[in-house]
Design brief:
The chain is α/β, with parallel strands linked by helices. It is built from 10 helices and 11 strands. Bound molecules: D-malate (MLT). D-malate (MLT) binds next to loops. Keywords: Hydrolase, Magnesium.
Length: 233
Amino acid sequence: MRLRVDLLPHGQYSDVVIVVDVLRATTTAVTYLERGADALLLTATPEAAFVLRGEGVVLGGERGGLPIPGFDFGNSPVEAAAQNFTGKTVVMNTTNGTGAAHTGAATGKHVLLAALTNAHAAARRARAMATEEIAIVCAGTDGRAGLEDVYAAGVLAEYLLAMGTFTIDDGTRMALTVRRSADSPLETLSSATHGQTLLNLGLGDDVRYAAQISTSTVVPVLLEGEGQSSADA
Ligand code: MLT
């Protein structure tokens, strides 16, 4: 079994793809499902999200870390954790994370969403589903690799290496080095470029929330969908 870490999304095929966008799309996606959402739909554009609005459907997303005008929610996991989404479908569109999920959906037979909060459960699910290769795809921010995502990829890789034998690539070696040499999860996320952006926007609670490791067993799995990806726990 091969294990690969892509520091940014690209279209190389894998049988299991784990999409990581710790600050904050995949952390928030896990939280929506934890708070009762029936499903998530991840669209490629805000316009596609507005088209899906309807009975029992709410929209969540951001640009530059701030809520998209006209959406019901931003992309804050802390905000999501305070709501009850039972019976709701949440449509998500974010700057980088939903796009990375679409790349994953285009290149993976099975696509999972992972953050630090569900890292162990995501690794366990990926290991159970994979037959040839697991690719951990870091969303990054605006086309640049994100320290927080590479750190989370290292956490996922450590869990996977404890679950079985893998041939690993240089991306995995780099992610493991980041994980093993880093300070605490919170210090790592806070020092990341996007973590700094969120702190400067007064969204430090989201950074603290996203820094929790393996507190959730919810693993969003993307299902086939026309033009959007949906996720089920
Ligand atoms: C992203 O998709 O890049 C992130 O979710 C951005 C954010 O929520 O701040």
